[in-house]
Amino acid sequence: MRLLTFNALFTGDVRVRLRALGEILRASDFDVVCLQEVMYRPHANLLRREFPHSACAGAVVLKGGLVVLSRRPIERWRFVRFPMSGPVRPEFLMRKGALVVEIGELVIVNTHLSANRDDDWSPDNRYTRVERAELDVLARLLADIGPDRPVVVTGDLNLPRDASVLRDFRTAAGLADAMAGDPRPTYRPTPQWPHPPAFDHLLVRGGITAHADLVLQDEVVLPGGRRVFLSDHYGVAADI
């Protein structure tokens, strides 16, 4: 199976970027696509061509902004919301959580954790405490699934690879990082932030072997010749 996770960025030229992304996905060899920040169901519809199966929660506004597209049948899925805790912030409107999708024996957890607006991932930071509570929800989900069933946890975790709270979660849940040791960022560097960390992760357990790499890093050409980046994030693709 070939899987992609990608934060599609819900601001700016959303529809034109999503149409361009949809064309890329239509021509791709991805079996499963996990997306974050697809905020509205009509936006999800722009991406569904060539993917006969999909999962997302919400009639108009999508819960968590999460979408899973699949060329393989989805047997069951559900959305689990994170607790609304910590500092009051616009993210509460996104109703962040996890989209749990079952494709055969494989369980895929597509998620988007709260952002750390202090850029401080030390254990006692106020936003780190929020992220720890959200990871606790994921840990309970994984405990209910059982240790032997193959699982992929993926998405924009808003935590650097070496953050202690993420490391503790991986260890407790028995998850392996498909890009362990890779120093490259998954957030696009800017002059204001030239050395961002890797926020987008692909974690596996249950006997899965995953080989992952960054994708969707380059500009695309829109109708009329304008060039744009698809997102402020890169994609992570994996052969599982």
From TrEMBL:
<dbReference type="GO" id="GO:0005737">
    <property type="term" value="C:cytoplasm"/>
</dbReference>
<dbReference type="InterPro" id="IPR036691">
    <property type="entry name" value="Endo/exonu/phosph_ase_sf"/>
</dbReference>
<dbReference type="GO" id="GO:0006302">
    <property type="term" value="P:double-strand break repair"/>
</dbReference>
<keyword id="KW-0540">Nuclease</keyword>
<keyword id="KW-0479">Metal-binding</keyword>
<keyword id="KW-0378">Hydrolase</keyword>
<dbReference type="InterPro" id="IPR005135">
    <property type="entry name" value="Endo/exonuclease/phosphatase"/>
</dbReference>
<keyword id="KW-0269">Exonuclease</keyword>
<feature type="domain" description="Endonuclease/exonuclease/phosphatase">
    <location>
        <begin position="4"/>
        <end position="233"/>
    </location>
</feature>
<dbReference type="GO" id="GO:0004519">
    <property type="term" value="F:endonuclease activity"/>
</dbReference>
<keyword id="KW-0234">DNA repair</keyword>
<dbReference type="InterPro" id="IPR051547">
    <property type="entry name" value="TDP2-like"/>
</dbReference>
<dbReference type="GO" id="GO:0046872">
    <property type="term" value="F:metal ion binding"/>
</dbReference>
<keyword id="KW-0227">DNA damage</keyword>
<dbReference type="GO" id="GO:0070260">
    <property type="term" value="F:5'-tyrosyl-DNA phosphodiesterase activity"/>
</dbReference>
<keyword id="KW-0255">Endonuclease</keyword>
<keyword id="KW-0460">Magnesium</keyword>
<dbReference type="Pfam" id="PF03372">
    <property type="entry name" value="Exo_endo_phos"/>
</dbReference>
<dbReference type="GO" id="GO:0004527">
    <property type="term" value="F:exonuclease activity"/>
</dbReference>
<protein>
    <submittedName>
        <fullName>Endonuclease/exonuclease/phosphatase family metal-dependent hydrolase</fullName>
    </submittedName>
</protein>
<dbReference type="GO" id="GO:0003697">
    <property type="term" value="F:single-stranded DNA binding"/>
</dbReference>
